[in-house]
Specification:
The structure is a single chain. This protein is an alpha/beta fold. It folds into two domains: 88 residues, Leucine Dehydrogenase, chain A, domain 1 (Rossmann fold, 3-Layer(aba) Sandwich), CATH 3.40.50; 128 residues, 3-Layer(aba) Sandwich (Rossmann fold), CATH 3.40.50. Helix content is 41%, strand content 16%. It is built from ten helices and ten strands. The chain has a five-stranded parallel sheet with strand order 5-4-6-7-10.
Length: 287
């Protein structure tokens, strides 16, 4: 069966809209998100436009700062300093990737960790590793765990979860979150020996490698829950472009217990969790 990320994301946004209304009523504060976009990457512009739209739809303020490709690192850092010091702004997001002349790690480190709604700052990573409630958790991993629970329920204790991918954006944080859910977690990657055999042990399989149709049906345990984080563009036999995930969906769907489709799976949850993080940051600002 499919795990409908679009539907789960809508339910989360609807819930957030109610919470935002209550928050504004109680505190007279409207949660605010500012997105900085550097350059002309078309995919980034589409993604940011969608973020802005969803933010406004649930009653939050959305600001967008567009900067040219040749923006210097120093100027971008000066803009972040202003946003860090502006108490009316609760969430700051710098859209990645940045132009190559800008050091992404330096930019992420310059964001106030309490406003870091992407959850990429080292302080938030440390808070997540320590299991602290104050951690702002990266959006995609949050969404992945929510989608797992959509199929398996809230108690994941004892499940064996295999995560393919060890990035700071998805692989490592989703492994930490699954550990907090009392799963037994294996992190696999490009150097893992006998990867198919490792995957065959997984009750929960999270795949984030960026290779189209990488995971085959023979790798999948019967009845496993699969979260496909990949978004890859391929050409069909007819010469048309098509979005596919990191899992060979057509081959795997009949064998697994449930799987997230691409598109319509993890993607919508990423934006919904960004909105959730922004409301959390607004709430935390009252402390």
């Amino acid at each position: 069966m499919n795990i409908d990320g679009t539907l789960v994301a809508k339910k989360l946004r609807d819930k957030l809209a109610v919470e935002i209304t209550e928050f504004k009523s109680c505190h007279g504060i409207q949660p605010s998100l500012t997105v900085l976009l550097v350059g002309e990457d078309s995919a980034s512009h589409i993604y940011v436009k969608n973020k802005v739209k969803k933010t406004q739809e649930i009653g939050m303020i959305s600001n967008e700062i567009k900067l040219p490709f040749n923006t210097s690192q120093g100027y971008l850092l000066s803009q972040l300093e202003k946003l860090n010091n502006d108490n009316s702004i609760h969430g700051i997001l710098v859209q990645l990737p940045l132009p190559k002349h800008i050091d992404e790690s330096a930019i992420i480190s310059a964001i106030n960790p309490n406003k870091d709604v992407d959850g990429f700052h080292a302080i938030n990573s440390g808070r997540l590793f320590n299991g602290e409630s104050e951690a702002i958790v990266p959006c995609t991993p949050q969404g992945c765990v929510m989608l797992v629970k959509q199929h398996l329920g809230d108690d994941l204790s004892g499940k064996h979860a295999v995560v393919i991918g060890r990035s700071n954006i998805v692989g490592k944080p989703v492994a930490m979150l699954l550990l907090q859910e009392n799963c037994t977690v294996t992190i696999a990657h490009s150097q893992t020996i006998n990867l198919p055999e490792v995957c065959q042990q997984a009750d929960i399989l999270v795949v984030a490698v960026g290779i189209a149709k990488f995971v085959k049906a023979a790798w999948v345990k019967e009845g496993a829950t699969i979260i496909d984080v990949g978004i890859n563009r391929i050409l069909t036999d007819e010469g048309k472009k098509k979005l596919v995930g990191d899992v060979d969906y057509d081959a795997v769907i009949a064998k697994c217990g449930a799987i997230t489709p691409v598109p319509g799976g993890v993607g919508p949850m990423t934006i919904a969790c960004l909105l959730k993080n922004t409301l959390t940051a607004a709430k935390n600002s009252l402390r």
